[in-house]
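tl;dr need the bound structure. longer version: we got a ligand (S-adenosylmethionine) that a collaborator sent over and nobodys looked at where it sits. i said id run it. heres the input, straight from their email, havent touched it
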Amino acid sequence: MTETVNPDREDLQRRVDAITWFHSIDLGNGIVTRGTKSIDVLASEADALLGPVRLEGASVADIGAWNGYFSLDSRRRGAARVLAVDEYTWVHPEFRGRESIELVNTTLRADLEFKQVAIADTGPDSIGRHDVVLFLGVFYHLFDAPADLLRIAGCAKDVLVIESYHDALELTRPAMVFYPGATLANDATNWWGPNPALIRELLTMAGYERIFFRPHPDRGIVRGIYHAFRSSDALTRRAVDPSMPRSIDMSTLPANHRFVDANPVRRVIPGASFPRLRRWLRPFQRRNPR
Ligand SMILES: C[S@@+](CC[C@H](N)C(=O)[O-])C[C@H]1O[C@@H](n2cnc3c(N)ncnc32)[C@H](O)[C@@H]1O
């Protein structure tokens, strides 16, 4: 018997294969984009990043959206409007990010909106103000990171969600480490490794009153997640649970708080991320949360 060929599926697969993906996204019909970040890692990141935020009916801006996993997931979690913002990977000849996110959007009928703009020009004037702003995995790529963060912080009406690589964890004072050339992960687009005290100070300068921190769900304290709410009212309005379980309220931390990794595996092997071991450890960690 000859196999039936679905020309639409073949065409989609061909278009998917022509792109270098960062996000693994299930496009249906057995087609999953082969991203650097696996579906499992993205799902646990999305639970930690978006899970605590009430997104129903919200307008969301996803700054540095790349292939659009978090834009798409915000829509899935009920956001009324999602504006995906990016430029670097969108115009990159290998990453072809703009083409990728448009392909995801049309295939999954996600109804995303797009704004192609450099980070240096991203602010309330160019992208407007949104209930929720996502700024995930971008801070450490920016040479002028503090100034860019302060401007982008002005785009969030209620909540700014930041995810970043960390360094200078041995210092309790606000600090960030400079990586000249390609000295971090052999990637010349990485410039800075901030510590949590620095991100907290910048968010406070930007006018955020309630700031919550949690380590990255897979990488631990090597990376961190910040949920910054403009005010206690914004916290009540936008947090699924305003007590923000599983997060540390940064306003209650002493100035000399030292962030350490509560996961003994990562303490022995810095940066270690063993998915099977993690799954095995989960019941013990649940009994003994960070
Ligand atoms: C590590 S990816 C993060 C993608 C997505 N937000 C996530 O968390 O999976 C960094 C994103 O920042 C964007 N970006 C903006 N300005 C950049 C710059 N100067 N250098 C590198 N990336 C930059 C890239 O286009 C890319 O989408």
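gonna send this back to them w/ a short note. The pocket of S-adenosylmethionine is lined by residues 64, 66, 86, 88-89, 119, 136-138, 141-142, 163, 189 (CB under 6 Å).
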